[in-house]
Specification:
Layout lengths: L1 H12 L20 H6 L14 H4 L7 E9 L5 H11 L3 H17 L8 E4 L4 H7 L3 H13 L8 E3 L11 H8 L3 E3 L9 E9 L3 H12 L4 E9 L3
Parallel strand pairs: 1-6, 2-5, 5-6
Antiparallel strand pairs: 3-4
Helix pairs in contact: 4-5, 5-7, 8-9
Length: 233
């Protein structure tokens, strides 16, 4: 009883806030408030047959994927954009980890954990990593690994070139920007394994396509992708 009273007292002084709307969480809520959990734009792509998955169709003829997954739909000026902004620019790496845990648990419950041997986040260049202090995709990968109960590696894939921002580029420009900037650190760790590549947000898919092509060339048995959010084309 005393422990719960102390927790309630600390909550009054240092309230836990919802990661999406920044309103205080109440007892029993973790990471996201009940309202945001109900209103976030979930994709549920993992419940669709592959031929009906609109995200998977984006990669047809470009990269053979086992699964194309994304937790949320990106809605400009909405809760998802706020979550991604907090993760990427405000130092809130816990946002990525928490969303990864939630999504990983959902994918595990759907029986998808058995389809993956290793989770690999899209890497940042060392200079950008040093500047930001963490890799937002790696934070998401950490949470997914916990939820799926599948190991993750932040060192299996390496970015060799510090590319310019992708924000204002079209798909062809994005592909040209990342087509040759990734390499596998140790192919022996990749050969024959089913890889889940993860990133924070998918727009054109050029970065994930480049990572997938490199991993398949290194001997991966198959690749899948998962992101926190995906933008409509």
């Amino acid at each position: 009883m005393l422990r719960f009273l102390w927790a309630d007292f600390l909550g009054l002084i240092y309230p836990r806030l919802c990661l999406a709307c920044r309103e205080p969480l109440v007892t029993g809520e973790t990471h996201l408030c009940t309202g945001c959990r109900a209103e976030l734009p979930y994709t549920d792509f993992h419940r669709l047959p592959p031929e009906q998955n609109p995200l998977g169709r984006r990669f047809w003829g470009k990269l053979p994927l086992r699964h194309a997954l994304s937790y949320l739909r990106f809605v400009r000026h909405g809760r998802v954009q706020h979550l991604l902004h907090e993760l990427k620019y405000q130092g809130q790496r816990d946002v990525g980890t928490a969303l990864g845990q939630l999504y990983g648990a959902e994918l595990h419950a759907a029986g998808l954990a058995a389809d993956f041997d290793l989770i690999i986040p899209v890497p940042l260049h060392p200079r950008k990593l040093a500047k930001r202090g963490y890799n937002q995709a790696a934070a998401f990968a950490t949470g997914l690994a916990e939820g799926l109960k599948v190991p993750a590696s932040n060192t299996a894939l390496r970015r060799t070139t510090n590319t310019k921002t992708q924000t204002k580029k079209n798909r062809a420009q994005r592909w040209e920007n990342v087509a040759t900037v990734f390499e596998v650190e140790n192919p022996a760790h990749i050969i024959g394994r089913r890889i889940l590549i993860v990133d924070d947000v998918l727009t054109t898919g050029a970065t994930l396509e480049a990572c997938g092509a490199v991993l398949l060339a290194a001997g991966a048995a198959e690749v899948s992708i998962a992101t926190i959010a995906c933008a409509d084309r």
